[in-house]
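Private note to self, pasted from the team thread so I don't lose it. Backbone tokens:
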């Protein structure tokens, strides 16, 4: 696309191949260009939306940052495997092994410190376990090759942290003009700064290309699949869409499920009968619809309907086993 834009064409069209295949007419591999040119001449081809070059550059930066974050998580799992091999149960007392306390203890282990008492002295004040439990968890046998692996892995994590920070600063600079939209998006439960940045880079801020919130949800691939024949409905997966947007919305759905809000109620209402993953995807769909409403107007913020919204709407639903999904998105 960047190469075609350099030739200063009046208009560049990108058409979905599935849309072309569905058009009537004869099609042969040797005459594809004639058939496509004929469809273009009669105006039968529907062009896909092409985001501006600045937005495409932001997408590359944000997606690459996400890849580095996934690599960092993988390295954290490798560190945990080395600790398990040395019988050091650091994960059982520290939620984030690569936090401030965790990295301090790991650095001491990599430097050859084996006394669990001295390692326990490195724990910060936020560690809420007894000293005896901490010493017992840090008692292990760390060999020379394991110390070398920890040293190399910590260096890799530090390098990744520097790269992620550099990318985050560049993304923040490029999104300086969208601070208001980023702030309003973060009023949605489960949406943090990086999630809001990903949403803006993936869908943009101009919602005119989406006639409704349903079109945006379908473009993102978060609509539930439909497979019905002879009055019988069979379960289907959601359609294909933006992988990056789907991933952050699913994570936000899980995060919103831990809150006492309307989105948290949506999550728990579905999780017990459909599973946590499907509930997170459905909650992410609600988040995307709320984001559409926020980006459509310059002064709209998220207004929560309350964690007891469904109980107030139908007090007997939980007892009678009735669930009204005719209005699946309640946006305040």
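Design output:
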């Amino acid at each position: 696309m960047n190469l075609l834009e350099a030739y200063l064409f009046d208009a560049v069209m990108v058409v979905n191949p599935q849309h072309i295949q569905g058009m009537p007419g004869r099609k042969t591999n040797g005459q594809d260009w004639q058939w496509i040119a004929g469809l273009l001449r009669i105006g039968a081809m529907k062009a896909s939306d092409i985001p501006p070059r600045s937005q495409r550059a932001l997408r590359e930066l944000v997606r690459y940052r996400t890849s580095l974050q996934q690599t960092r998580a993988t390295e954290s799992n490798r560190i945990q495997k080395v600790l398990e091999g040395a019988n050091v149960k650091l994960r059982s007392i520290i939620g984030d092994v690569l936090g401030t306390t965790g990295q301090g203890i790991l650095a001491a282990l990599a430097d050859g410190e084996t006394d669990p008492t001295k390692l326990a002295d490195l724990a910060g004040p936020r560690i809420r376990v007894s000293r005896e439990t901490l010493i017992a968890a840090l008692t292990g046998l760390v060999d020379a090759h394991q110390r070398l692996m920890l040293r190399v892995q910590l260096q890799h994590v530090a390098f990744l942290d520097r790269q992620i920070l550099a990318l985050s600063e560049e993304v923040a600079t490029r999104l300086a003009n969208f601070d208001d939209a980023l702030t309003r998006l973060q009023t949605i439960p489960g949406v943090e700064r990086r999630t809001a940045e990903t949403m803006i880079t993936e869908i943009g801020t101009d919602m005119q290309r989406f006639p409704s919130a349903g079109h945006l949800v379908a473009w993102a691939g978060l609509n539930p699949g439909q497979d019905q024949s002879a009055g019988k409905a069979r379960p289907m997966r959601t359609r294909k869409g933006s992988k990056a947007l789907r991933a952050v919305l699913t994570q936000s759905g899980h995060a919103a499920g831990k809150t006492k809000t309307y989105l948290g109620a949506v999550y728990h209402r579905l999780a017990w009968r459909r599973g946590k993953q499907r509930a997170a995807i459905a909650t992410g769909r609600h988040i995307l619809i709320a984001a559409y409403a926020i980006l459509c107007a310059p002064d709209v913020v998220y207004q929560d309907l309350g964690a007891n919204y469904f109980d107030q709407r139908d007090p007997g639903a939980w007892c009678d086993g009735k669930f009204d999904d005719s209005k699946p998105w309640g946006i305040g």
